[in-house]
Structure prediction request, 177 residues.
Amino acid sequence: MRTAMDIVAGDGFAAATTAHIAERAGFAEGTLYRHFKSKDELLIAAYRQLKADVFDRVSAETGNATDPKARLAALWRDMWTVYAADMSAFIFGQRFAESALSKAEGGAAHERMIGHIRGIIEDGQKAGLVRQAPPETLVAFFFPPLVAMLKQRVQGRAWSEAEIEAAIEMAWASWTG
Prediction:
């Protein structure tokens, strides 16, 4: 799955043929079909695994132990750190999300992360810290700055600590406005 992800990130979906994936992974193409019915099934599995891995890595520090603002900041920072350290994973995730496969995947990969963010929002609303707006609307203000900054990083833009902190603060402000 990692090989497929790296090929898509580097060269796009067209380059991620089962023959190319198998060759680069060092095994016969038929081996892929023992585990996956199709290339699409493999790519969906890779995307779901990526999202599960990211969730597992970033959610541990953002549970109910701290206040909602600190949880949002920790989650945003951890997601930045994970993806900034593995830009291939970020690029694959973006390409997948913008592809027809995203519709076939059905959103299952995001359910845990969205649920986690909703929990932070709902706790903030209960504490009177977060505006009383539909959580789905507030979730929509979490990802865009993170994604935009990571996309610019792919293009070579270096972000300072102060800029990252400002983005986190703006994400919080969008919820509390």
Remarks:
- The CA atoms of residues 80 and 146 lie 7 Å apart.
- The chain has a mean pLDDT of 93.
- The radius of gyration is 18 Å.
- Residues 39-59 form the longest helix (21 residues).
